[in-house]
Amino acid sequence: MTRQQLVEQIYKKKSYLCVGLDTDISKIPRHLLSEPDPVFTFNKAIIDATKDLCVSYKINTAFYEALGVKGWEAMERTVRYLGEEHFKIADAKRGDIGNTSDLYAKAFFETMPFDAITVAPYMGEDSVRPFLQHKNKWAIVLGLTSNKGANDFELKQMIVRQTTETTREEIKDSNEDAGYRIDEVTIDTNYVSFLYEQVLSTASKWGTTGNLMFVIGATQANEFTNIRKLTPDHFYLVPGVGAQGGSLKEISEKAMIKDCGILVNVSRAIIYASGKNDFAEKAREAAKAYQQEMNSYLK
Amino acid sequence: MTRQQLVEQIYKKKSYLCVGLDTDISKIPRHLLSEPDPVFTFNKAIIDATKDLCVSYKINTAFYEALGVKGWEAMERTVRYLGEEHFKIADAKRGDIGNTSDLYAKAFFETMPFDAITVAPYMGEDSVRPFLQHKNKWAIVLGLTSNKGANDFELKQMIVRQTTETTREEIKDSNEDAGYRIDEVTIDTNYVSFLYEQVLSTASKWGTTGNLMFVIGATQANEFTNIRKLTPDHFYLVPGVGAQGGSLKEISEKAMIKDCGILVNVSRAIIYASGKNDFAEKAREAAKAYQQEMNSYLK
């Protein structure tokens, strides 16, 4: 999916909601457990009940892998069921040396028809670049995450050396023999920034605003204004609204740009809105409330 | 597997070799493609040919996920075939918020019988800790990786603030009314270190030397002496020997400790030693050469 197609969906549906299919077999209504594929049956009901209210679905791969082969089958069935209208995110936090990331990209972009995958930046450029080589597919790089552990490294200060090279023209005295030249002047400046800021400014050069997004946790609202300055045109995938406590209003005010530029994910507060037979209906009500709030913020 | 059991295997086999099952269906001998499960058939032949020469097998999950459900099935069959004698590593580079990492741990430690999983540290403590809650299971945290991208963040300098709190006793003048007290003195010191050094020193406190290892790339030999100073007792999983060019001799000299403390992984140079019918025999020869060299370094 291209950025233009995603933005069209957002303004058509007046929604930048991503529904997180963190489907935990121990939390879905018990009457579904007698189905041959309870996870897919649950997902299908949630999707049917919410698809006109959201522009994206995010599949958290851990929940499927925990079930082994059956879980992987449920994930494949779910992403194929979603079709072309929604932006399909594999929340997989992958990333490895180049030849291995190539295969993760193949797994999620070719073997399965996801539009995007979340990627961990620790191993640097060659671990992320393979995800940027697939046409109309996206890498969503971890920037500043919503969890407490963000303080351990992401919010630690780094020293950044910026080298500015200035080429000056030849300077000549009126006496030609006395001429001298300064070809190049290099100025080194050291400054301090958070690791996550370095990740944003470095990783944003690896791709474009049309194939690279960042994960920015909704619980990090204090940093949103700064983050928008560093990456003024990138889309953000924003988890942490709902169960984790982030404010939809605050992040929308601070991070929204002229073509929206944010996808806000809600998982548990929608898919587990009810644990009974009415789970799909209640999920729709919860999604509808988010969509209506989003409609009031969309410019 | 406990550390003691792993070390016993190392001295019994005179080997600290880990064979990497990076099984790529496009690289295995063509005559295997007519088998119902070519990846497992290949792995089984490699395992049968090398099991007395190595103490560990490492399954790179990307190669299996690229094949979808069939690949996940081949991974499950392979790890179950390995049995109890070998240290079974899922090279999966996982890591997410706590409730999600919990499910990755379940996937690899309960649904499948791996002994260890590689974990990315970017998201901090709560993303790693769930992998340390399973008895006799290990988290192998990325420290300094073997790829070029290690320069992007891992080898960037950070500012570390160390706070030392000193409690002093009450100091009293001979005249009791003139008494004064200093309860606590806090001293802040700033120093500079690489990000990967911070990961080693911080993450080593999350677990023990009996449930946490680090990934240290063999191509980073210049840093090995420093790394051993920072983490004198931890085991390292060392990829990058073989196709990536790291020196087995150099890393063994610099990183080996009294109970060995290193597992050296070789993937392509063993499993693709031949692309023909004799692939298992040639894999054995390659593994044997590594084992014999390791025997000469083992103290």
Q: Can you offer a commentary on this structure?
A:
The structure is a homodimer of 299-residue chains. Chain A has 299 residues and is an alpha/beta fold. Chain A is built from eleven helices and ten strands. In chain A, strands 1-2-3-4-5-8-9-10 form an eight-stranded parallel β-barrel, surrounded by five helices. The first copy, chain A, has a two-stranded antiparallel sheet with strand order 6-7. In chain A, helix 2 crosses helix 11. Chain A starts with a helix and ends with a helix. The model of chain A has no long low-confidence stretch (mean pLDDT 93). Chains A and B meet through helix 3, helix 4, strand 3, helix 5 and helix 6 of A and helix 3, helix 4, strand 3, helix 5 and helix 6 of B.
* Beta-strand residue percentage of chain A: 15-25%
Which pair has the most extensive contact? A-B, 60 and 62 residues
Shape designation of chain A: globular
Termini gap of chain A? 22 Å
Strand order, main sheet of chain A: write it out: 1-2-3-4-5-8-9-10
What is the string of helix and strand elements of chain A? HEHEHHEHEHEEEHEHEHEHH
Task: Give the quaternary arrangement of the chains.
Answer: homodimer
The pLDDT mean of chain A sits at 93
**Helix- and strand-based class of chain A?**
alpha/beta
Report the biggest beta sheet of chain A as strand number plus sense, adding barrel if it closes. Answer: 8 strands, parallel, barrel
Number of helices of chain A: 11
The rounded Rg of chain A comes to: 23 Å
Share of residues in helices of chain A = 25-40%
The number of strands of chain A is 10
Regions with little confidence, pLDDT below 50 for 5+ residues of chain A = none
